[in-house]
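Hi V.,

Quick status before I head out on leave. The structure for the redesign project is tokenized and pasted below; the design run finished overnight.
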């Protein structure tokens, strides 16, 4: 008997152009023949329009993996609501014991749609992708569920303040903030919503969560492909990748541009070029495009050619948890990586062998200068990166782990 699984996500999965989408698609698509998957995804107007522009192709790809797929509106966060609706939002979340009130995607439409899909398709298990979607477990407790943790969300989302509030309102806001964090930790670090299993992209994150239910390490699945192009013998092309709608990405890019980039010309005579690639770059980073050595193209549909011709990817990550999927993607392409400690956190990479790591701006610039001066070092890192990905991120192995977790929760496993 083929089991029906409802995957609930914070975003449409296609195009797979962000770390979260890549991870969720990559851990789901290989299991399409083993389970009958259904998708419920939050979507905003821009994402619906993106789908409409390429509906035939995206529909065909969705149907390769999902028996059905449904989009519901992603609700606004409190920062975008008026005072009365904010208070209603906070009270309702408190009443239901829901987490992440500041970035919650809870909505009555999502709950009603979940219940409808469970009934229509005889859903055997709900796969909750991200803590933001954990609210569905609160309202459909009769269906077994697993939680997939991309990171420890309660670390990443402080309760966002705004300058709209008066001092008395801020006191109320902060009180709800503490309730929000407490709810998040009770679900995420403990297991208040009684998930049958929790799956983690990072072993470091898994270690922080208690043992109230089984835990599984589910690394980013990635197929390693040796580099198709030789490294540039006469220059160093640096690539930075990431969506600028994610605050830690902006923070890291600014740190690199303010503190690392200016040092490079002092450390090597080799010409250096830089591409900052990602959607919605802020004006201060776009301004660097005026420098003939720097390209800030914004969103790029296909980054494969950029990875194939770059000499190094930089991952200057300063905050967050989980795993940087872009780092794994680069390693899988045989692209050398220079990262901060956070930039390879959660991976089993060995600094100095699989990639280069530095947290001080001068040291970070120094590692880039070493690469600029040595094509041999780039080639050695490229070979080590391919070996690492084949050892730790094999898609077949990752799929087997996820299937085991699901089948054990359903009582179908050994």
């Amino acid at each position: 008997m083929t089991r029906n699984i409802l995957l609930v996500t914070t975003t449409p999965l296609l195009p797979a152009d962000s770390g979260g989408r890549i991870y969720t698609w990559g851990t789901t698509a290989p299991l399409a023949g083993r389970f009958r998957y259904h998708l419920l995804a939050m979507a905003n107007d821009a994402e619906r329009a993106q789908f409409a522009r390429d509906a035939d192709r995206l529909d065909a790809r969705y149907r390769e993996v999902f028996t059905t797929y449904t989009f519901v509106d992603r609700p606004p966060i409190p920062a975008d609501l008026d005072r009365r609706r904010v208070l209603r939002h906070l009270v309702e979340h408190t009443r239901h014991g829901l987490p992440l009130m500041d970035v919650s995607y809870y909505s009555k439409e999502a709950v009603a749609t979940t219940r409808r899909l469970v009934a229509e398709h005889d859903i055997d298990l709900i796969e909750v992708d991200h803590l933001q979607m954990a609210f569905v477990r609160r309202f459909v407790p009769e269906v077994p569920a697993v939680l997939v943790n991309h990171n420890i969300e309660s670390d990443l989302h402080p309760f966002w303040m705004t300058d709209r509030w008066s001092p008395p309102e801020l006191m109320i806001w902060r009180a709800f903030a503490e309730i929000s964090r407490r709810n998040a930790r009770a679900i995420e670090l403990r297991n208040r919503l009684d998930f049958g299993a929790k799956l983690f992209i990072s072993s470091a994150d898994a270690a922080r969560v208690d043992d109230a239910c089984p835990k599984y390490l589910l690394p980013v699945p990635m197929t390693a492909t040796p580099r198709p192009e030789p490294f540039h013998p006469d220059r160093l092309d640096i690539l930075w990748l990431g969506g600028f709608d994610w605050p830690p990405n902006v923070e890291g890019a600014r740190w690199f541009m303010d503190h690392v980039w200016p040092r490079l010309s002092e450390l090597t005579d080799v010409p250096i070029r830089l591409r900052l690639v990602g959607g919605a770059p802020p004006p201060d980073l776009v301004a660097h495009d005026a420098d003939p050595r720097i390209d800030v193209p914004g969103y790029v549909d296909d980054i494969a050619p950029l990875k194939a011709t770059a000499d190094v990817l930089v991952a200057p990550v300063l905050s967050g948890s989980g795993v940087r999927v872009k780092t794994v993607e680069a390693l899988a392409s045989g692209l050398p990586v220079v990262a901060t400690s956070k930039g390879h956190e959660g991976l089993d990479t060995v600094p100095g062998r699989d990639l280069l790591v530095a947290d001080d701006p001068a040291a970070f610039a120094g590692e880039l200068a070493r690469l600029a001066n040595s094509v041999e070092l780039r080639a050695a890192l490229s070979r080590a990166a391919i070996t690492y990905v084949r050892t730790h991120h094999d898609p077949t192995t990752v799929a087997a782990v996820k299937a085991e977790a699901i089948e054990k929760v359903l009582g179908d496993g050994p």
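Above is the designed sequence. The chain has two domains: 4-218+394-410, 236-392.

G. will cover questions while I'm gone.

Best,
W.
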